[in-house]
Each structure stands twice: as C-alpha cells, then as structure tokens.
Amino acid sequence: QVPLVESGGGLVQAGGSLRLSCAASGRTFNNYAMAWFRQAPGKEREFVAFVSTNGMNTIYSDSVKGRFTISRDNAKNTVYLQMNSLKPEDTAVYYCAASPQAFAGRIQAAYIYWGQGTQVTVSS
Fold first, then answer.
1. Which helix (H) or strand (E) holds 51?
2. Is the alpha carbon torsion for 72, 88, 95, 116 positive or negative?
C-alpha cells in the first residue's frame, strides 16, 4: 500500500500559479513512478504529467507542456506539480497516482494507487 495525500489546490486567477504536493506513506516510494491526472466536471480523467522513479524522466500532456513542471523528492516521499500561467480550462480535480511500472507514462491502468484529489479552480 502507498497511501497518497494531495494538497495545495485552491482558487487562483488566470495567469497565476499554484504548487500541488502529493505526500506518500511507506518506505518504498522511490520504487514507484508517479503521475498527475485531472478530471474536469463532465469530462473523463486525463493525464497531466509523469515522472520516473529517479526523477530524471518526465512526460507532459500537450495542454500543459511549458507551463507545468512535475518533480519529486524521494527523501521526502513527495511529488510536486508546479503550475504556472494557469488558464480557466485547467480547472479540475487533480489526482496523484503511483505505478510499480517504470514506464507507466500516460497509461491510467498502470497506476494502482491514487490520492483523493485536490480541487484547482482558475477564474477568468
């Protein structure tokens, strides 16, 4: 089990920034690839960003590339999502997820542990 707890969501104006955090419990955090997904009202959950176990490899969706940065601190069992230049269309519940597969990437089915989500609302 890898319990995940997200934090850092909130209400921000368009063009602003937020930093999401996802804290994991347990001593095996660095064995898991991590990712962020999001789900907007009335839409399916979608991939946002991925980071490999050692933090050296990242993947982003086209919609956030250049604006969002995913990172991880294995010493703190935490993964982050720095979100800059936020847009109203970024409004969603953001979830972090953990996968035992090193190359899980965008594949939702590869992620076996999920957080409860944190709401991000971007006003225009």
1. strand 46-51
2. positive
Residues 10-49: tens digit of each pLDDT = 999 999 999 999 999 877 899 999 999 999 999 999 999 9
**pLDDT exceeds 90 at position 77:** yes
pLDDT band at 57 (very low <50, low <70, confident <90, very high): very high
First-residue to last-residue Cα distance in the chain: 39
Phi-psi region of 109 (alpha: psi -120 to 50; beta: other; left: phi over 0): alpha
Q: What is the DSSP string of 93-116?
A: EEEEEEESSTT-TT-GGG--EE--
Kindly state the tokens that stand for 44: 């399916």
> Tell me, what amino acid is at 35?
A
Would you mind telling me the total number of residues written for the chain in this entry?
124
